[in-house]
Write a structure and sequence with these properties.
This protein has 158 residues and is mostly helical. Helix content is 49%, strand content 0%.
Length: 158
């Protein structure tokens, strides 16, 4: 709560919650990656752009996924975060969830309409990431939910 008090103080004295650094990193991204749910809620309630992207095309949702904070992930998704976001390397929030083996994150994204057959810039699907890392719970879930088991990447690999 100390961080929230400091932020409220700064805003009260003219601080700009929409300010970005030279990498276009926002206060919402900072709060998301550092697991500060109170700050995330405050900033969203004050009207920051939930889908603002930094120079790598990553948003607060992407950073929340990196920190694996389900409370922040669920909150951002509930408030309209883009569940089909891709960063500059084509890595998606879905492929990230499968890559790190977090079924809860993946389910949350799918429940909000993320593309189950989402692919990165190399054509690697969410299912391919789960297979590569032997995340059997995710593999099973994706197949049960209708993931395309015949997908091929850009090199024709399946």
């Amino acid at each position: 709560m100390l961080y929230l008090s400091i932020l409220e103080y700064l805003v009260y004295h003219g601080g700009d919650i929409h300010e970005k650094d030279d990498q276009h990193f926002t206060s919402l991204m900072f709060a998301s990656i550092h697991n500060k749910i109170a700050l995330v809620k405050y900033l969203v309630e004050k009207g920051v752009n939930i889908n603002e992207q930094d120079i790598h095309h990553r948003s607060a949702l992407s950073y929340a996924l990196e920190s694996r904070n389900m409370e922040i992930i669920e909150y951002l998704v509930e408030k309209g975060a883009n569940v089909d976001e891709k960063d500059t390397s084509g890595y998606t929030v879905m492929t990230y969830s499968a890559d790190v083996g977090n079924l809860s994150m993946l389910k949350t994204l799918l429940d909000r309409g993320a593309d189950i057959n989402d692919k990165d810039s190399y054509g690697h699907s969410t299912l391919m990431y789960a297979l590569k890392n032997e995340h059997y719970d995710i593999i099973t879930y994706l197949i049960e939910q209708g993931a395309d088991i015949y997908e091929k990447d850009k090199d024709g690999n399946s």
